[in-house]
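Researcher: Quick one. two chains, 1234 residues in total.
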Amino acid sequence: MGVRVLVLRAAGINCDEETAYAWERSGARADRIHIRRIIESPATLSDYQILTIPGGFSYGDDIASGRILGNQLAHHLGEAIGGFVDRGGLVLGICNGFQVLVRAGLLPGADCPVRATLTHNDSGRYIDRWVRMRAEAANCPFLEAGEFFDVPVAHGEGKIVIEGGAANLPAFERTGRIALRYVAADGAAATGDENPNGSIGNAAGLIDSTGRILGLMPHPERAMDACLFPQHIRDNSIETNGLKLFQRAVRHFA
Amino acid sequence: MGLWRFEVSSIGAEPDPAGLSVRSQLIDFGVQSVEQVRASRVFVVGLPRSEPTKERQTADRIGRFLLADPVAETCRITGESDPLPTANGQAVEIHLKPGVMDNVALSTAAALSDMGIAAISVRTARRFVLQPAPVASELARIHRLMGNACIEDVFLGTRPLMPPPEPPTYEYELRHVAIRTLDDSGLITLSTNGHLFLALDEMRTIQAHYLRLDRGPTDLELETIAQTWSEHCVHKTLKSAILYRGAAMPGDTSSTTERRYDNLLKDTIARATDELIREKRGPQCLSVFKDNAGIIAFDDTHAVAFKVETHNHPSAIEPYGGASTGVGGVIRDVLGCGLGAQPIANTDVFCVAPPSWPNDAVPKGVIHPKTVLKGVVCGVRDYGNRMGIPTVNGAVHFDARYLGNPLVYCGCVGLIPRDRIEKQVNPGDLIVVMGGRTGRDGIHGATFSSAELTDTHEDEFAHAVQIGNAIEEKKVLDVVMQARDWVTPDGKRMCLFSSITDCGAGGLSSAIGEMAADGGAEVELDKVPLKYAGLRYDEIWISEAQERMVLAVPEENVAALLALATSEEVEATVIGRFTDTNRLVIRYQNNVVGELDLRFLHDGLPRTVREAEWLSSPTAAPISNQRETLSPEKILEKLRNRLSNPNAASKHWIIRQYDHEVGARTVVKPLVGPGNGPSDAAVLRPRPDSTRGIALGCGLATEATERDPYWMAVAAIDEAIRNVVCVGGDPSRTAILDNFCWPRVDDKRNLGALVRACQACYDVAKAYGVPFISGKDSLNNEFSLDPADIELVRNADKTDPTRNGRIAIPYTLLISAIALVDDVNRCITSAPRLLNGYGELWVVGMDNSSWQDASMAKLAAFHRCIADLIREGRILAAHDCSEGGYLSAIAEMAIAANISVDVSIPAEGLLADPFGPLISAYVVQPKSADVFMNRAFGNGIHACRIAKLDSDAFNPAIKINGATATIAELRRAWQAPLDW
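Model:
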């Protein structure tokens, strides 16, 4: 039987349907399962090759974005997820799911020499706009280094910051944890709104040391059909379709 | 219990957006001395008493692992024995009042339990340190600028640790109201003091009923009747008999008329729908006016539901809470229509006073319009985004007359399988309340929303303010959707419940009263889960606590439904049973606290004939087509001014804060083109496996309102239709919704205005083949000023908004349109693009300069024709233009596309004035110049080439008869006014 994906549900997760749909469109079988069922029976994870934490406002993002769900993962499923990744499983966190992975300590990971986190956008406001990003990581099964995506972002706390600030950026870059970066339309370094939240190093997504855990702020599942692209970039950017991220992960297990 | 205070702040190196936002708020309102504001979040947690070092260790764990981010934040922890933190500057703490919902505290308590910590209490607060401390005169204003006294306590300095207040205790005591012995003035006093808002004849009817019963009503019975009979719940004005005298309606032969309407709504708006359904015109209407939302067919298997509500009064008092619960309420309307529709899009329209209103001219009881607008935007944002429902379409309209009564319209569209539209309560079904717990919040909301606001309402109705919890509602949504399409162990699809409705205004009283209307119900109030102890039985019954749904569940399905709810962490409780006795019996601890005859409750409202009058001539002055002769430079200057008028200016500050793409359904977004121009309407693709779509647009034409509300309604409907046509909507399969917001309707003229608007709705709906499927009204939107404030307000705006010491809103009719789209891939936007280097913009529109002269049949054909050209791919971009003239529309299209345009203004004719209002027109980009041949054009409809497009990638500009302005400069003018 083909690749099986567990799409996590929890109070306030609200992108689970379209995320499961993106997996189905990519040839996987996706089940949407509530976190309580997994806490009741962590062995459920072993039926799956991919775990996805979709976007939303888990538990209202009360205290901080993704904090409460991240807290649940850390306290109830830390071991189970660790084992899942060790066995070669892939983990994808999109938007709020990325925030959850960061809060749970899974990204950039306890072994990362420079600590990183997600915080409020520089504007202080939630923002929804389309951005372009480029894959940087070569060791991430979801991505191919150098490829572009046109995708929407929709978040209030998407700014990646690192311990020690800009002075530590070279050290952080050397860890190879920056998997995706915001870029300008022509691929040059992002400036202004092209980096929608003020993320350090224009980082849009991070991986752990294995490359098997990927978290990103933009929403590839909202860019899987031509008609969902803004009309003015629809004609020339279909190769930047977000679906390829899901397809590549499915092929990884083929 | 040991109390611990946690103060979480971002580390110094990181920007502090919450602090910056408070500082800009202070500066907006004239507090100049504060140079910096640092924000932090405060949590006060009560831990079980234990050995002091152990307790401190627990507190450290909480601070480090739960409350503060290890990289970006620091946490200061203070126990009861520690000195309170001091501040370098003026500390201001904003604490929620006791009893006000604190969602973060609830989540924090749950997260603590995940960590194995059993907290006894959690409360949260926001803290700001103002540096340097403001001067005394400024400090005095801090309370009002930084908090809302309705729900928050503003504390200067660090508030000492205090245990949470004990909830009041309640001992049951049945209370009766001695209505039988009252005279008329006694009845009026009872209605006023009891906040019943019932008229004398209604009070007399109730009195007579209880005289017949030979007993006095219980307080609960009286409240139930008042709510059921409130304007909000029963729409007694729109449904009443009206005798209209005055100016004739168009089509009448004489200049004055007298018309009698037995039921204004049924005789106008609903009648148009009935007739269109019979004539098989318009979309296929599956449920109109009877359910919580109107429903039209989408395809063979699915239908779409649409509802638009207002939440004006609560938003006037607490903009954030009012708007967010307005969104929550309209989402529940959609979730509670049929057997539950899945919400897929929200809309929002705000009418407020100009944001530039002088700070020192805000009357008592009123919140500054800029604060109102910021608050309602944040409320809509936080609720919609959290629910995962995209907010895709809306409008903002500024007018000084909305100062006392800002209007907040919230709409929601849902997708529903066609076999889930019919619902039927069966006797014997159990009554299940699902979702949030019941508290004292929102008591009297239904009657309150039917009242006029005064300068003291802020205090009297603080309890009517509700705080939303979107996540609770999202959980309820998840349960209802699974219960609706429940799959039995043997693979059969069924619905676990037989009927559902939302608990909105009027709470359980309204919801159960309506569901039981054809049968009866018995309710046990002590079974209702409460947020805290101390609620009286009547408070439980009428509380408008949010996020609750009421379901009728066959006994054999109850176990499955309750288990499903539990598995999703949603509370669901059986609180009674539906019957066939025609009686509503309400018990509390085995005592009958109310027993109502449902026939009296639902049919007992006395019907009165209301008198309406509209005296001014129905053929008011036509829109002026006098040409102003302006030099090209003057035209550009006027264009910049037009673009930077707040009503026309870019709403990106609002739009970008809304998630308008969640759900992956949004095809045409609210900002379009590389230059982020305005979209006319939104398009969604509800189902990913189908190319069929829906277009959502709206129309609001308050500028025509004083001349004649009849033509105002015509203009609003036409605008809504143009908007959906512009993106590719099918005007022959479009449905519309009406939302009337009106000043006092006990005034004959205001009621006459309402009659004229309703009559116009009938006439246009019939002519266009566009049925109304749902509607709602909010009447009595007037504000009576404290006499000391009257002069202040009169002098604040060049158009004095006051009349006799009051501010009445203009007649405001919002029309929302939902149109089917055959293929979303053929949708267009207002952003033109060159095709092989060629591009032109044409103005197409009616030849008439006033609505009175235009033929409605011709208008309908005109919209049909434009829609056909778009469907055939012969029009590549379209933008609505009307009251502002065509030049603003062209500039907006150039801004959207970031493209050069060369405009040639005709020397003569209707288009000689580029700013002259056009009654119904589009600016379009044809694929080729021959597109308009062989069509209806020329026959009362003009099509005029007005501009050439030119790609200038580096510095696009608009040229008008030789003068030039860059698009970048116009975009700045357009974006600056509301770029907060």
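The CA atoms of residues 90 and 212 of chain A lie 5 Å apart.
Researcher: Thanks, that's what I needed.
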